[in-house]
Design goal:
heterodimer, A: alpha+beta, Sulfite Oxidase, Chain A, domain 2, 5-stranded mixed beta sheet, 5-stranded antiparallel beta sheet, 7 helices, 23% strand, B: mainly alpha, 2 strands, elongated
């Protein structure tokens, strides 16, 4: 007795062919519109790619939720950090006057910015929530220079696709795509709740990417590199996070 | 299609459950409202050690961090679940599965019919009786209501509360998290809805086991009923 009729066989065949063709088209479209994340390989690549692609399509210009001043957390949590290295301690002893942000890569005018120079650019503040991948969160006011203002100063070349950013602490770096880099809420933050940004919270200079989880908001930023590919950075997965098993895209 | 999607859902749900528990271990405290962290008072705390030294648990012991692969797997399995749900939902609308097999029959839409089935379950020596002839081929009203609740209430809720935990999703759809009472409320609800799904899983597998685990499981895989068993149970009746 046969359990597969001719009709079922034909329908199944057509469905399978359509499925394979659909996947091939989806793959080409995804590549064309830059929906493939740097850590798209491996057994979790499909899920990571769907996360990144779906949210890129859904959230292109959306703003992270901002909160009223009354909702600022009275007891924010700075999270544990390793003791600062000697380079950091030297800067701290000098009141961070020697802190420099180096900007290089695919830019017309590579440069260095002191904190005072960053503060002389247009400033923006926002009351947003820091959300840790572990589940906890707090709300604070973040004051800083929008990343796009700094990128304007140095003149980003048209082929740029990612901004990599590096902490003064070794092995602590990450990257975001150009769309997140130009997003109005992406800040190089140097102030918090009407004061200087405390060291525990990333002072003197922290990246703030409020549409992604806390670990994208790397602390103690000293360098930005504009690039068209993340292949030559570390293991080529986009940031230090995938090298430690965590996803590069952290909007979820 | 019901059978294929059932087993895909089983695989995705187990993966989501294991990876979700691993993620919870990194912060086994729950809060209500928008924000919550170790400096704030929790709504309740799970009595387990944490995989983070920053969480005070009273155990003096930090578990290994499994969040990296757990987060990757959680979201990949969530995609499998969503695609499976779409295939199941569309095909069930088209072939009448919802209407014919899951919507309680007209005569059964009463509390009396519902309690009658419960009473039958409670009064019967389930282990020896097996399914009776009618129940072998169609679901009774209690089964129908439970399955509809899982498909149309619990799964949509668990997906919604899960999406509300994504800061990017919330930037596009802020109401999705705001109507739940804030981000930490969404996280707590995500945990409780998962609890109800696990409760369903336990009762479901228990009922299958009482009805004859291997014959029922074989039926759910192959779609063929083991007629000998039903014939036997008819004789007993």
């Amino acid at each position: 007795m046969s359990f597969i009729s001719r009709r079922k066989l034909i329908t199944g065949g057509v469905a399978a062919t359509a499925g394979v063709a659909g996947l091939a088209v989806a793959d080409r479209m995804a590549r064309r519109y830059g929906l493939i994340p740097p850590d798209h390989g491996g057994c979790y690549g499909p899920g990571e790619t769907l996360d990144y692609a779906a949210q890129r399509l859904l959230t292109k210009h959306s703003l992270a939720r901002e909160f009223p001043r009354s909702m600022i957390s009275k007891a924010p949590f700075a999270n544990a950090i390793a003791p600062p290295n000697d380079a950091f301690k030297r800067m701290q002893a000098g009141g961070f006057l020697d802190w420099r942000l180096k900007v290089d890569g695919m830019v017309a005018r590579p440069g260095m910015f002191s904190l005072a120079e960053l503060k002389s650019l247009p400033v923006r503040s926002q009351i947003t929530e820091v959300v840790c991948e572990e589940g906890w969160s707090y709300i604070a006011e973040w004051i800083g220079t929008p990343l796009h203002e700094v990128l304007n100063e140095v003149g980003v070349l048209p082929q740029a696709r990612y901004i990599a950013y590096f902490s003064i602490e070794p092995e602590w770096w990450d990257s975001i795509d150009i769309s997140d880099a130009l997003h109005p809420q992406t800040l190089l933050s140097w102030g918090m709740n009407d004061g200087d940004l405390p060291v525990g919270f990333g002072g003197p200079l922290r990246m703030r990417v409020p549409r992604q989880l806390g670990y994208k908001s790397v602390k103690y930023i000293t360098r930005l590199t504009v690039t068209d590919s993340m292949k030559s950075f570390g293991q080529g997965l986009g940031s230090a996070a995938p090298e430690g098993g965590y996803s590069w895209y952290a909007g979820i | 299609m019901v059978r294929v999607t059932h087993w895909l859902t089983v695989i995705a749900f187990i993966a989501l459950l294991i990876s979700g528990l691993e993620i919870v271990i990194s912060h086994p405290r729950f809060y209500w409202g928008e924000t919550g962290n170790v400096n704030m008072r929790p709504l309740f705390t799970l009595p387990i050690p944490s995989s983070r030294g920053t969480v005070p648990t009273g155990y003096g012991y930090v578990m290994p961090d499994q969040n990296g692969w757990s987060r990757y797997l959680h979201f990949q399995a969530a995609w499998v679940l969503v695609f499976t749900a779409l295939v199941y939902g569309i095909s069930s609308l088209l072939n009448g599965h919802f209407r014919k097999d899951l919507l309680p029959a007209r005569g059964d839409r009463s509390w009396r019919a519902f309690w009658e089935v419960i009473a039958r379950y409670l009064g019967r020596d389930l282990h020896r009786a097996g399914p009776d002839a009618a129940e072998a081929h169609s679901y009774n009203v209690v089964q129908r209501v439970s399955y509809l609740g899982v498909i149309f209430v619990l799964f949509p809720l668990v997906i919604w509360t899960g999406l509300a935990l994504s800061p990017a999703f919330d930037s596009a759809f802020p109401w999705a998290v705001n109507v739940l009472g804030g981000r930490q409320s969404a996280r707590t609800l995500h945990f409780f809805v998962t609890g109800f799904l696990v409760l369903f899983l336990v009762v479901h597998v228990t009922m299958v086991a009482l009805g004859g685990f291997w014959s029922r499981t074989r039926t759910m895989i192959t779609g063929r009923m083991v007629l000998r068993r039903i014939a036997q149970s008819r004789e007993r009746l």
